[in-house]
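Bench notes, bay 3.
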Amino acid sequence: MSWKTPSPRVRELIRQGAEIALNPPAEWLAELDAATLTGQARQQIAADPVLAAGTRQTNRSNLLFWAAANVRAPGEPVPANDTEAPLSVARDLIRRGLDESALDAYRAGESVAVRLWTQVACSLTTDSEELRELLDVSLRSIAAFVDDTVSAISVRMRAERDELTRGTHAERRETVALLLEGAPITRRRAESRLGYGLEPTHTAAIVWTDAPDADLRHLDRAADSLAEAAGQARPLNILASAATRWVWVHGGPDTDRLRAALDRLPGVRIALGSTVPGIDGFRRSHLDALTTQQMLTRLTSPSRLASHHEVELVALLTADPERADRFVNRTLGGLETAPPEVVESLRVFIAEQCNATRAAVRLFTHRNTLLRRLARAERLLPRPLAEHTVEVGAALEVLRWRGRP
């Protein structure tokens, strides 16, 4: 594309606009994220916590990269953004089995960026000739920047695909994919390629991090800790993305032991599937682990370890987050925002079949203290507890796993 340097006045206007874009309002970022994570073509990315977090990080990276370049050299061509954020997402897309069509998200982000930038441009000048030149130069710049960045990322994705189709990792990943899809592969052949028995009982796990500065070596240490908690020497550990591992162990892990190991691995999170036997169990447990991970992400839960059997009901209740929020609000009323010790006391009381003595023991508190908290909780509920104990218990479980606003 031929490039004509804009006039000094328009260069100054571009610089002013770029400085605004360097400190984007929260609503800009929210709109970019919504555009790049919605739509049928991007469902798989939006449903994956690591890919979704990477996409949001890439949105910020692209916006700041273009804006910073135009502060330094207003109106000059901006090179492709081949920094770590977009390259990392490219690697992860390939490792999830996606192709370059996933880069459609860049086009969705571009349309939002063009509209937001046009609003900025119109606020900088009322001179129609200045505005025409400003928009002509800057919109061509945005289009060229996105085209060049998509081209650079496509090259990286092809290289990553070539790397993954060679060697043992590719063979193990392909075998796991066949098993998860229910494709015809004999048990003996799959076990030989994986080095992992498929007849025993399995517990699958998703081990991941959404912390941008996390030490990725901790993911493999967490996988090893999972195996140790299940009494095994090593797990089946598949690299799903740079920040995600798919893991299987035989039997069920000791979650207390696993939780203690996680305390030494900051930033790492684990979602456990059900514990079930055979090849069907291998597949079922993995899908349950994915459901658990997606629920934690959907609810912005701070929990770093969750098992499917703990969250199955909550996962079903919160499939539609807005309806789940309305259910919790209607059911709990003022209790929803009560002090944590009051909320937890009622939750444990219901879990112990409304037995105050057992609940007090479980909470390590005096029975009279518990009764005072229960009385306070009863006053905050919109309806008496006895009239809708099941609904209150379900709402409290949602509240337990949901991140506080």
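Next record in the batch:
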Amino acid sequence: MKLFYSPGACSLSPHIVLHELGLPHDVVKVDLKTKQTSDGRDFRTINPKGYVPTLQLDDGTILTEGPAIVQYLADRKPEMHLAPANGTLARYQLQEWLNFISTELHKQFSPLFNPASSADLIAAQKAKLAERFALIAQTLEQHDYLLPSGFSVADAYLYTILTWAGFVGVDLSPWPALVRYKARMEARPGVAATLAAEREAKKG
């Protein structure tokens, strides 16, 4: 498998999952501004959407969209329990979290990264995020990860979003459960290995 990614972007989520599962994979860095890959290709010929993550399977098949990719990866090694079995209520609860993170967190950050956003828009987005963070903190006050069963691919996605907070002036300290969760995630060997790899990639 080959993961097309950009260090620090939402592709961090499947990158973490690959390390957590110990699945053999290659990575190809993508410049999201020029749409060029580190091996000299036009990324849009691989993924016409033009954004990461993108997973290329060994037979050449392309899979896009982070929530789909992380579930595909988890299902490659079901014995690792990073996603509940298909057809179970727990699997739908995982998908519930993935959808919530994608629509209610991930997309709420987009205006905060846009230098053209007005002060009023930024304030409104931060207020929305505060409401969402408060909801998530309630869950994380009850158990260590989003699902009662433990670490899952939804946690890789949530952690990825939380890493953006400091870059856009969102303070997580009002939600101690989120601060503890972020530290707990960074103590996981798979997460630490991924962060180290992406830090090294940024130097190149």
